[in-house]
Every structure is written in C-alpha cells, then in structure tokens.
Amino acid sequence: MAILEAKDVSMYFGELAALEGIDLSVEEGEIVGLIGPNGAGKTTFFNCISGFLNASRGNITFKGQDITRMAPHRVCHLGICRTFQIVQSFSEMTVLENVMMGAFCRYANSKKSMNIAKEVLDFTGLAEKSDLIAGSMTLADQKRIELSRAIATEPEIVLLDEVMAGLNPTETEEAITLIQKVHEKGITIIVVEHVMEVIMKISKRIAVFDSGEL
C-alpha cells in the first residue's frame, strides 16, 4: 500500500514553477530514486514533503493523513525525516549530542534519548567517535552523523538529499551499504542522487524530474 502520495503538487516562486503537477506514490518499504538535472525540482519536492515549504497547489498525504501544510517538526514526529544537500550538523556539539537531538523529537527524557542515540551510533558505525566534536569530522562522517540523527527520530520514511555528494569511491560504497542496512530495518527511503551507479544499485524504482515536472 502507498505510504506517501503526492497529487498535483505544484510550487511557484513568483512566475517560476519549481514544481508543476507532480503525482507520485511511494509504497511502504520501497527505495525510490529521484533523478534529474540541477534545478529540476527534486529538493523543492523534499521541502514540500517535509514542511519546509508549503506547496502552492495539490496535496501530500502520509498514511492517509494530509501533511501538505504541516510544520516540519510535526511531519518529523509523524514519521518522516530528511537529510540535506549541505550537511546540517551542530558543529560545536559532540557526535552523540547531535544524534540525541534526533531522539528528542520523540522523547523528552535525556537518558532515554542518550540510550537511543548510542544504539543508533552502534548501528551506523560511529560509536567509537561519539565523544568527538561534529565539526571536526570528515565530510563522510558528518553525512553519517546526519543520517544517524534522522534514524534517531524513529522514522517510517527517510528522505536522502544527495547523501553521496563529495564522497570518494570507498566512502560511497560504505554509504550505500549503510542505506541498505537502514532499508532492512523496514524504513521506506526516497533518495535524490546524481551518481547514476548509486541510484541504479539501490533503487527499486526511479522517478525523473525535469523543469519541475515528473
């Protein structure tokens, strides 16, 4: 069954149509790849799903509930979390504290959030670096921190926006393996990526965006 549905989703910035009439359904448990040139509307689509932008027209539903104009924190609490093209870590906080911020989406208790964060760091291979300052980490590790923080929100859907950008071949393979591990946990994944060999390797289905259209 469809866990996420977009119907006639359009986003206008003045006269510019960043999205025009997007109809896309994502089944529970899928990995769906979104591809297309820069400026095609892929990240704008993520922004509309996650509440960072309010679509100008159309509707987005998650498990049958309309989330079209819902605030980002409410969308996250429902079960949709995302990463960003440009890494958004809390650079002066530790790796553990960064991931705890994700857990705080669900749990106000610090001890509970810390335990969840530690479990996630074990899962993502960052446990040994949990006390390091996030801003001092490599790009690959910072991307792993961001994905860890997303997992700590206990999502049903994760939106990955160019998680491979800037990684070398070895780091890319490690990222692919981690994404596949996340999927094995039962999490539905929608991934924007320009590296075609990555998209072809991990996606069950691919949607192509061009000039704001599907």
Instruction: Report mean pLDDT, rounded to a whole number.
Output: 95
How large is the share of residues in beta strands? 25-35%
The tally of helices reads 7
Which structural class do the helices and strands define? Answer: alpha/beta
Give the C-alpha Rg: 17 Å
Strand line-up across the major sheet: 6-7-8-3-9
Q: Would you count the extended β strands for me?
A: 9
Please estimate the helix content: 25-40%
Shape: globular
Helix and strand sequence? EEEHEEHEHHHEHEHE
Termini Cα gap? 21 Å
Q: What report would you give on this structure?
A:
It contains seven helices and nine strands. The protein is of the alpha/beta class and 214 residues long. The strands form two sheets. The chain has a five-stranded parallel beta sheet with strand order 6-7-8-3-9, sandwiched between helices. A hairpin with a 2-residue loop joins strand 1 and strand 2. It starts with a strand and ends in a 6-residue tail after the last strand. 41% of the residues are buried.
Topology:
Elements: E1 2-13, E2 16-27, E3 31-35, H1 42-50, E4 57-62, E5 65-66, H2 72-78, E6 80-82, H3 95-103, H4 110-124, H5 139-152, E7 157-161, H6 169-184, E8 188-192, H7 196-202, E9 205-208
Helix pairs in contact: 3-4, 3-5, 4-5
